[in-house]
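Protocol step 4 of 6: structure prediction from sequence.
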Amino acid sequence: MEKFTEITGTAAPMPLVNIDTDMIIPKVFLKTIKRSGLGVNLFDEMRYDREGNEIPDFVLNQPQYRDAQILVAGDNFGCGSSREHAPWAIKDFGIRCVIAPSFADIFHNNCFKNGILPIKLPQEDVDKLMDDARRGANATVTVDLETQEIRGPDGGVVKFDLDPFRKHCLLNGLDDIGLTFEKKASIDAYEAKMAEARPWA
């Protein structure tokens, strides 16, 4: 999994509340088991019309937000079904951090497993960052995981809380498989011991 340390870039404003996983990646695109290739269909029904043409008013279709790495969203982001394709699509598009007042639990957990940092903040802090995001490319935002700070374009700093274990995993690029491999020496030693004690197994 790709490490997350610090990102600086444009934040895209999406103030809608209750953005569910079907809005993030519609069910028609769930046939794949690959984590790549879903970014083009992120927010598909809001990004494209029925003929497949981009809807100019949608935030990620606007020139200043096409390369956004940060998304500032409304309350209860990622609600609905538990599809892991939702964070896959977000990550494949290039977004590494989602900031919102709250997240659905399963989506929140899936973000950490896929190298995305979901940050919960009080509504007043989200509102400030939403205002910064609306300024487009003229206002870059920095998310620093090590210091647990979000630095705005005018020098403002917002601190965020994060579980130390999840912080460790993101900083070191460790998903569940990576965590298991950290114990590889112990696992190998155990398997060798068992092979010697039970050669018939």
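Step 5 (inspection) to follow. The chain has one domain: 6-175.
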